[in-house]
Amino acid sequence: MANDREVLREIWDGRVPVCFQLDSSEVNGLQAPDPYYLMVPRLSYFPLVTDKVRRHFQRYIHPDKHDAEMWVDFNGQPLKWHYPIGVLFDLHIPEISLPWCLTIHFDKFPEAELLHCSSREAVESYFMSCIKEADVLKHRSQVVSNMQKKDHNQLWLGLQNDKFDQFWAVNRKLMEVGSDETFKYIPFRLYQGDEPFIQRLVKPVTEEGQRKTLFQFLQEIYAENASKVKVTTHGVEPPSDTPLQWMSEHLSYPDNFLHLCVAF
Amino acid sequence: MGWTISWEEFVSYTADFMTVSEEICDGWVWQGDKERSGSAYIVKKIQLQMPADTYDCKQETNENCDDLSVVEFEESHSVAVAESADLECTWEYHVLYSISYATPVLYFNAFYRDGRLLPLEVIWKRHGTETEALQHMRWEALSQQEHPILRRPFYQLHPCKTAEFLSHHLGSSLNPVVTWLSSIGRTVGLHLDNEYSKLVNKNV
After folding, report:
1. Which chain A residues touch B117 with a CB distance below 8 Å?
2. Chain B residues closer than 8 Å to A126 by CB
3. N or C end of chain B: smaller count of CB under 10 Å?
4. What is the distance between the alpha carbons of residues B36 and A137, in angstroms, rounded to a whole number?
5. Which of B99, B150, B158 faces A199 most closely, judged by CB atoms?
6. A111–chain B Cβ distance below 8 A for any pair
């Protein structure tokens, strides 16, 4: 059970300072807009937190582009909005000095790289598909399947409106463990630069029934290179003896996945 | 929960599928690394005629759309008026294995001739989730996702009901990949040749 409420709250309240700037080639007129500064939740998604940003810059672009799909890049690299903001930040930590300077675009949407996001429904759809996938791994889908639609809605609304208690009232069910006190498999994604993320079936206990540590988990993935691996999540490096099951209960993102950024 | 298959089973069933594909020159090919769990998949590309009204003018000025219509008309050498000409689009289908769901998953993309993606609205329309009653379900049935191997946007038919679907065929199908693909593929323009049915039926 996700019992350590202080940790859950700290994770929930994580923020990243961002400076949004409009692509200079898209400024329509003589006056360039001021940058827009915002503290954004690590656990959220860019489309959910950029309504005000959009309205701020919309006035400075060509009227024909007012309804165009907005997208964000960092140092020329389009940011995948379907990754939680904290994951995108962790992936770029070596290159970032605060505030995180991001460029806003309304033109030339790079559809070969980014999922389209025509509405918040696209974010909700993606988020819920991750929740379902995580529960398939943890509980063979039994918890999500037995939930009512209003519970799904509450997870989404809690995330969208940044309401910890609303979200965790439902999410605690997704963090339930049975008599064996562990999930069946741990939902995780390991990110390493531009390579495909690593996602495998990993049990939270060893064959002898001992709880796996983060280090043992990394040994499963990286074998003899495990000791060279530096893991960052939520901007911190968990100690290598942290139990994997505990991490899954307390350090997962709202989509119920551990998103781990790896460097050597 | 339903009928799930291991990665090894997926490779085996799909290899049988590929044997038939080669026999009838159906054009499927393996991609990726079969030695790594979940890292290989099969691909097929086809050209499909789409109604002209599916052309997405949102990202082009009217002028450009008119120009393209003229080009279409000239290339087709057709006496029909430009407005009724069909558009030829490339559809690319990928059958992957989902490690999490332990089932096959269909990813696909569809491109206009100029390389732009067909929009999700057009895909839904073809899929049949455009009807009023299914509006609320369309996001749960079909949406854009990141291709787990290529890391590019692809449309995905959501796999969360696949195991349940397959469980209905547990006693009657010898190849769940063929059973599944022949059922769901047709909703997104993919129709399997009858020759594949010999992999499924126990009688043959």
Report:
1. 111
2. 143, 145
3. C
4. 19
5. B99
6. yes
Tell me, what DSSP letter sits at residue A234?
T
Dihedral pair phi/psi, residue A124, rounded to 5°: -60, -45
Fold type of domain A11-105: Ubiquitin-like (UB roll) (3.10.20)
Q: Do A255 and A181 form a contact (C-beta atoms < 8 A)?
A: no
User: What is the CATH number for B45?
Assistant: 3.30.1460
Into how many domains does chain B fold?
1
Has residue A2 got a pLDDT over 70?
no
Indicate whether this complex's ipTM tops 0.85.
yes
Closest residue to B144, CB basis, from A116, A142, A200:
A116
Least reliable range by pLDDT among A113-127, A143-157, B47-61, B141-155:
B47-61
| pLDDT score of A46 more than 90 | yes
**Is B40 contained in some domain?**
yes
Contact A121 B116 (CB under 8 A): no
Write the CA distances from B151 to B35, B60, B144, B145, integer angstroms: 19, 27, 12, 9
Chain B closest-CA separation from residue A73 CA (Å): 16
Residue B119 near residue B178, CB atoms below 8 Å? no
Question: CB B139 to CB A124 under 8 A?
Answer: yes
Task: Give which of A198, A177, A179, A154 is closest to A243, Cα–Cα.
Answer: A177
Q: How far apart are CA B23 and CA B37, in angstroms?
A: 27
B163 within domain boundaries: yes
Report pLDDT digits (tens) over A159-185.
999 989 989 999 988 998 877 778 989
What pLDDT does residue B52 have?
67
Residue B178 maps to a domain:
yes
Give domain limits for chain A: 11-105, 121-263
Question: A211 has which bridge partners?
Answer: A205
B196: number of Cβ within 10 Å: 20
Whether B89 is a known active-site residue: answer: no
Q: Which CATH class is domain A121-263?
A: alpha beta
Q: Do the chains contact at B143 and A118, CB–CB below 8 Å?
A: no
Q: Which residue range forms the structural domain that includes residue B186?
A: 7-51+86-199
How does DSSP classify residue B117?
B
A158, pLDDT greater than 60: yes
Q: At what angle do helices A120-139 and A164-174 cross, to 10 degrees?
A: 30
Evaluate whether residue B68 is within a structural domain: no
Whether residue B124 contacts residue B138, with contact meaning beta carbons closer than 8 Å, is answered with yes
**B40 vs A62, residue with greater confidence:** B40
Q: Hey, do A11-105 and A121-263 end up sharing a CATH topology, with the first three levels equal?
A: yes
Bridge partners of residue A198, in order along the sequence: A190
